[in-house]
Amino acid sequence: MSRSPNAAVLFAALGDATRLSLLRRLSLEGPLSITRLSEGTGVTRQAITKHLNTLGNVGLVRHARRGRERVWELERKRLEKARAYLARIAAQWDAAADRLKAFVEQG
Amino acid sequence: MNTDRIEKRVVLRAPRSRVWRAITDAKEFGTWFRLTLDGAFAAGKTVRGSHDNFKVEMRVERIEPERYFSYRWHPYPKDSSRDYAEEPMTLVEFTLEDAEGGTALTIVESGFDRIPLARRAEAFRMNTEGWGGQIKNLAAYVS
Description:
The complex is a heterodimer. Chain A has a domain at 7-75: Arc Repressor Mutant, subunit A, CATH 1.10.10.10. Helix content of chain A is 64%, strand content 13%. Chain A has helices at 7-14, 17-29, 34-38, 45-57, 76-105; strands at residues 32-33, 61-66, 69-74. Chain A is α+β, with helices and mostly antiparallel strands. In chain B, helix 1 packs across helix 2 (26-33). Chain B has a single domain (5-142), classed as START domain (Alpha-D-Glucose-1,6-Bisphosphate, Chain A, domain 4), CATH 3.30.530. By secondary structure, chain B is of the alpha+beta class. The interface between A and B is large, with 37 and 38 residues.
């Protein structure tokens, strides 16, 4: 397992609807067990485990013990990096919109 | 977590007709966007532009006067030494509405999820290198 995978591997891990929904739930609800994560998804525990391992291999999530239970939680720093691509393009649009504003408001 | 689209909304203190011209007149667009474009925008037409070391191709999709303008292009990074022709494009949409004291403009760029993963990854590197300059441009503009 690599501690600092390159971004292509990171995006491959993110490119799946089930994995994105797992990340969303962990983000909203905090650390959760595999049992909780598979509830109501229609996806087997084995499949959920496989997805979590994929996310874990690129450092997006990690598991920890809580009592007798194993829970999964977000590795926030990696997620922030994954958001950076869109954030950078958004910042370029912000700058362009500011220039447009100045352009049309000056008369 | 939405990785497919960016949305930006801004109110401009200018009439709709003025904002419309700034967006759809290729010369005016080039002024504020900082691109030199080789022709006028028309639905279905491809307009080429350049700025410093990058080139863009804007494929105009739809023009609804004073309300909606859209085009497709290859998103950042735009490296002139690379051929992106085979890659999917993102869709950029400008929507104008009346707003108190001016015009509300919504800019949406969508379709990032179809961009190859390696390309999105590459943007990290290019943006990291190119970003210092962009921030300086912005700082110079606002000060």
